[in-house]
Amino acid sequence: MRQTTIAPDRPSTRDQLLTLLKKSEGLTADQLARRLGITSMAVRKHLIALERDGLITTSLQRRRIGRPARLYRLSERADALFPQQYDTMLSDVLHDLETLDGPAKVELVLHRRVQRLGEQLAERLERTPTLRDRVRYLAETLDALGYYTSWEQLDSETFRLCQYHCPIRRVAAEFPATCEAEAELYRVLLRAQVERRCHLATGDACCSYLIRAPEIAAAE
Questions:
Q1: Can you give the residue ranges of the Helix-turn-helix type domain (predicted)?
Q2: Is 3's pLDDT higher than 70?
Q3: Looking at the structure, do residues 102 and 183 belong to the same domain, yes or no?
Q4: Is residue 184 within 8 Å of 125, Cβ to Cβ?
Q5: Computed over its alpha carbons, how large is the radius of gyration of the chain?
Q6: β-bridge mates for residue 210, sequence order
Q7: Are residues 109 and 145 in the same domain?
Q8: pTM of the model
Q9: Average pLDDT of the residues of the chain
Q10: Position 8 in a domain
Q11: Of 71, 41, 67, 43, nearest to 56 (Cα)?
């Protein structure tokens, strides 16, 4: 299940609750209710949903008097909801590598990243006989990796694959070899001609690829 990230400019009650937990070592439902200015029952409804989504964990906190209190904390999975700067850090590292060892080393690193993805997919796709099923499986895998991918069949041997999100968009814009390596990987995995038509890194709404069977492409 994909989780919606925190919106710091317009935080919902859910976002405010998550932020309070992020800035604490754990809070009870009553503590959260007081800080949010809502009822404990309303807070518990949010907590039930967050626990169902795997975003919080609970533990019992012993007290000197009375029953133990249930303490809520964010799970490791919830980290993904908060702002990350992985693309900035990766971009800085690649620029430093380029300065120290030259652009060829950067391209080698970027190609190795794509190669790892290829190694994960190669065995399954090698056993997939039809281009349609290979495109479908590739799209499903990319979607699961956070590329928000869709695909459609245009005719018997022509397909379009669209990626609406790029987890390393800034890096892709600064180091075009990233995208070229991905396009080449798709050609190898799909055993087809792959042509990029739109590109997120240049401001398009998605990265789209026209995919055609080799014999169709050769006939044109």
A1: 14-61
A2: no
A3: yes
A4: no
A5: 23
A6: 160, 195
A7: yes
A8: 0.65
A9: 89
A10: no
A11: 71
